[in-house]
Structures are given as C-alpha cells and as structure tokens.
C-alpha cells in the first residue's frame, strides 16, 4: 500500500510492529490486538478477522509512548 495523494494507508499488524520498532518500541502484534480491542488504537477488522491499522494512528501512539511531540 502506498501513501499517494494524501491517502492514509491501512497497514498489517506486522507492518505496524515494524513501524513501532523503528521508533524504538518493543511491541508485538498481540499487544496491538489488545490495544485495538480496548480502543487504545483505532483499527479495522477485515473479513478474515485480522486487524488493520491506519499508519497515522500507529505513528500517533508511537509518539505518545515515546513522549515525542
């Protein structure tokens, strides 16, 4: 998925985990799923039952957890 024309792509749990790890956070897919279920991070459930996350939402939670502005 690309970020063309200002579209905020949905990313897989693996991509979200990689993005969080790039920010120095050791978070796994199970943690993301718990956060999504509890409402801590917005997520969409696709027909297979897997979650997808908006890239911008993952970046926001990364900033919240690292104290970045």
From TrEMBL:
Protein origin, superkingdom: Bacteria
Signal peptide segment: none
Pfam families: HTH_17
Domain Helix-turn-helix: 25-59
Protein name per UniProt: Helix-turn-helix domain-containing protein
């Amino acid at each position: 998925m690309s970020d063309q024309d200002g579209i905020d792509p949905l990313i897989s749990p693996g991509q979200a985990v990689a993005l969080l790890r790039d920010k120095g956070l050791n978070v796994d897919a199970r943690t993301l799923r718990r956060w999504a279920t509890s409402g801590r991070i917005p997520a969409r459930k696709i027909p297979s039952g897997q979650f997808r996350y908006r890239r911008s939402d993952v970046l926001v939670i990364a900033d919240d957890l690292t104290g970045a502005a």
